[in-house]
Amino acid sequence: MAIDPRRLRPSELCRLVNSTPLGTVLDERQLHRHRTRAGFRIGDGRHVDLFRYAAWLVELRHTPRRAPDGDPYEKLKERAAARNKALSLAGRDIGELPGVVNPERKAKAEQNFRSFCEAYFPMTFHLPWSPDHLKVMAKIEQAVLRGGLFAMATPRGFGKSSLCEAACIWAVLYGHREFVCLIGSDEGHAMDMLESIKMELDGNELLLEDFPEVVYPIHCLEGIANRCAGQLYRGQRTHIGWTAREIVLPTIPGSKASGAIIKVAGLTGRIRGMKYKRADGKTVRPSLVVLDDPQTDESARSLSQCATRESILAGAVLGLAGPGKKISGIMPCTVIRPGDMADNILNRDKHPEWNGERTKLIYAFPTNEKLWQKYAELRAESFRRGGHGEEATEFYRQNREAMDEGAIVAWPERYNHDELSAVQHAMNLKLQDERAFWAEYQNEPLPEESPQEADLTADQIASKINRLRRGEVPIGCNHLTMFIDVQQNLLFFVVAAWEDDFTGYVIDYGTYPKQDRPYFTLRDARRTLAMVTGVAGVEGAIYAGLEKLTTDYLGREFRRDDGALLRIERCLVDANWGQSTDVVYQFCRQSAHAAVLMPSHGRFIGASSRPLNDYQRKPGDRVGFNWRIPNVQGRRAVRYCVYDTNFWKSFVYARLAVAMGDRGCLSLFGDRPEQHRLFAEHLTAEYRVRTEGRGRTVDEWKLRVSGGDNHWLDCLVGCAVAASLQGVALPGMAPEPGQDRRRVSFAELQRKKRGRHG
Questions:
Q1: Strands (E), 164-279
Q2: CB within 8 A of 634, min separation 6: which ones?
Q3: CATH of region 458-725
Q4: pLDDT for the residue 741
Q5: Strand spans (E) along 132-218
Q6: Closest CA relative to residue 151, chosen from 317, 332, 2
Q7: Angstrom distance (rounded) from CA 484 to CA 433
Q8: To 5 degrees, how large is the angle CA 535–CA 539–CA 543?
Q9: Would you tell me how many other CB atoms lie within 10 Å of the CB of residue 187?
Q10: Which of 295, 390, 366 is nearest to 333 (CA)?
Q11: pLDDT tens digit string along 643-669?
Q12: What is the pLDDT at residue 733?
């Protein structure tokens, strides 16, 4: 059958082309694509012209191809990047905010702090409010809305920290305050409080319902703080911050809390200059500060630390708002001891601007003391038998009306599950530890008990001032002594003037290098011997420091009231510190003031130890009132002084206890007790324990548990020893034992000799 190559059906064309020795070169699908691409140029709707089809293929083959725009692989990567970017943006964008569930509840709490606490923190504040709670909440509300300062001392368990946390959240959610600063006794304490606030913002479903513009973006973080930098809302960054030290609320259009900040700091940390620059370029400073228990047990027992924290509060903290602006403040606190920082701030006579408020657990105690004494005996007996006080509780149940008579409690709903009333709860706390009860629950701490009745407090010592200027010598003084306590970083020293009857005056004291701070410790000294002297080695720095200090003081003339000029007669240098012993001996031998300088060693001589005066006196030894100067021996060609530290500390304390004006009184220069607070703390850093042994009764001095510095105490004791070396003595004090210098005749010597051989 004849085939017309110009009118071939597609199937015929495929069979014809594939009949060559080349085999299969074309299938119907490929031909269909070519027909679709070439159109009617190679045939009509039913047939294909083989010649025109071949011509079209040749033309297609030889038509030059256009060069591709760029690398195809790069285009592929760009398309993939664009796709991933779109997915990332979709994941970072939090989407539309949920609606407010209860607008009425939200509006009601805007100006009412009590409503806010009841509506959004029902698990925290589940007990009925007491009158004291309502009073405190009204003061907090006033401080947040209208400004002002408010300090409150409340019983433990009152909920003051929870109220302050709720106040911070309330202040920023409604836009009452745009920058809230949390300050604790240290930064760790404040960070714990911030963590509690973060937990409420992240886990409180009630806040999420009514404040979606603030809480929903926080929930979208899902606890991953790294998502903060990339979080978007409608394509714009929220600038949310969620770190351990600060919270920056999301920037959402129309939100009153947009960009609000909550930041933490420690009271003794870096507070000055606290500010934050928001996304809109506005710089904001704190407008509300919350100080949660700004003192520690250690600082409360230190007069100088209390003064330092008060000065920080009055200066750095209240100046956080910046020039020309007032800051609002809330300070929940606990009075630990009389006269501490909290006690002073709450005193409306000293700090009326803080509007101090003290609340108590119980305002009036029960009047029937006999029944409560019986209750205490039953309770103690139950505990001794391993019980839990059930008999005492049953006794209270039977006599409750009589035992409650006269009692007025602040919070009637506050008591434990195994107790019957708030009165019983308060009395149980009092029976458990009365001193802790008065401090923690009544905010009226009892005066501290001294280990010995004769011990002085730091307040008493700091108040023994004689109103003389620093460095001024009273007219009755004939002796000046100095003592230097050697430490690795500092040299502590005291200069004292003495009358012949041991009436003493501290005319100067300090450290080298000078610290220029009202309160410091040896551990936190900022200017050290190595820094000032420029000597790298410890011994070299001590030597250079001693040289500078002694040149200044031993070469100085001190003017007495009558115009006479006195110099320091004896300067003892502590040589007990192991690394400094050799360098102290070397310095005392080589110094230009070697005639005045003498190394010294304080020895702890307890009741069971052998007194210094009981040692056999050797030729060349000098023995005094509980001190000895042995003869020179060994490689150290310098005489040194050994003294009984226990005796001389008791001796100095006795001088400090003598009333002003009496003989033997020891007093301090100046007219302000505040300037001697740190010095007084050094002098009270140890306490005495009366012990007996070997027929003797001795006051043994031990460092207090607080572990404060006692270097100026050692210096003052050394000054008293140096005065004794110079002949100063109390009336009736045993004179320094000396050798019998009576002349002996030759005949008497012969008689003694014959008596020994006879």
A1: 179-184, 232-233, 236-237, 241-242, 246-248, 261-266, 276-277
A2: none
A3: 3.30.420
A4: 47
A5: 149-153, 179-184
A6: 332
A7: 44
A8: 75
A9: 18
A10: 295
A11: 999 999 999 999 999 999 889 999 999
A12: 63
286-173-122 Cα angle (round to 5): 120
Taking only the tens place, the pLDDT of each residue in 180-207 is: 999 888 888 888 889 999 999 998 999 9
Indicate the DSSP class of residue 317: I
Return the DSSP state at 316: I
Amino acid at 40: F
CB neighbours of residue 31 within 10 Å:
18
For 436, the token pair is 């802790």
Query: Helix, strand, or coil here: 439?
Result: helix
Helices 10-17 and 50-62: crossing angle, nearest 10°? 70
Between 632 and 370, residue with greater pLDDT? 370
Can you tell me the distance from the alpha carbon of 349 to that of 131, in angstroms, rounded to the nearest whole number? 25
DSSP code string of 652-711: HHHHHHSPTTSTT-EEESSS-GGGGHHHHHHHTSEEEEEEEETTEEEEEEEE-TT----H
What contacts 24+ positions apart, CB below 8 Å, involve 612-617?
A: 612/642, 612/643, 612/644, 613/737, 617/737
Total-model pTM: 0.64
Residue type, 241: G
Asked if 249 and 291 count as a contact pair (C-beta separation under 8 A), the reply is no
Query: Which residues, including other chains, have CB under 8 Å from residue 131's CB and lie 6 or more apart?
Result: 410
Average per-residue pLDDT in the chain? 87
Instruction: Give yes or no for a contact between 338 and 439, defined as CB atoms under 8 angstroms apart.
Output: no
Query: Coil, strand or helix: which one is 505?
Result: strand
User: By the 8 A CB rule, do 196 and 165 touch?
Assistant: yes
Distance CA(9)–CA(15), nearest Å, equals 10
Give the residues across from 698 on adjacent strands. Answer: 691
ω into 513 cis (within 30 of 0): yes
Q: CA angle 637-638-643, nearest 5°?
A: 135
Question: Tokens standing for 189?
Answer: 């304490």
What is the tens place of the pLDDT at every residue in 105-116?
999 999 999 999
Alpha helices in 288-368 (DSSP H): 297-300, 303-312, 341-346
* CB of 403 closer than 8 Å to CB of 423: yes
CA atoms 672, 677, 679, 681: torsion sign:
positive
What residues does 493 pair with on adjacent strands?
484, 510
Q: Which string of b and e fits 189-218 if b means at least 16 CB within 10 Å? A: bbbebbeebbebbbebebbbbbbbbbbbbb
Residues 6+ apart with CB under 8 A from 281: none
Q: Is 516 left (phi over 0), alpha (psi -120 to 50) or beta?
A: left
**Which runs of E-coded beta strand occur in 71-134?**
none
Q: What are phi and psi of 429, to 5 degrees?
A: -65, -40
Under 8 Å CB-to-CB from 28, ≥6 apart: which residues? 10, 11, 14
DSSP state of 579: G
Task: Report CA 699 to chain centroid distance, whole Å.
Answer: 35
d(CA 149, CA 144): 9
Helix (H), strand (E) at residue 59: helix 50-62
User: Which CA distances in Å does 525 have to 21, 107, 314, 514, 657?
Assistant: 102, 54, 24, 10, 31
CATH class of 130-196+243-358: alpha beta
Query: Domains of the chain: which residue ranges?
Result: 10-62, 130-196+243-358, 362-440, 458-725
The two three-digit tokens of residue 206, written as one number: 């009630």
Residue 226 CA to residue 241 CA, distance in Å, equals: 10
Beta carbons of 119 and 108 less than 8 angstroms apart = yes
- Enumerate helices (H) and strands (E) in the chain, giving the number of each: 27, 27
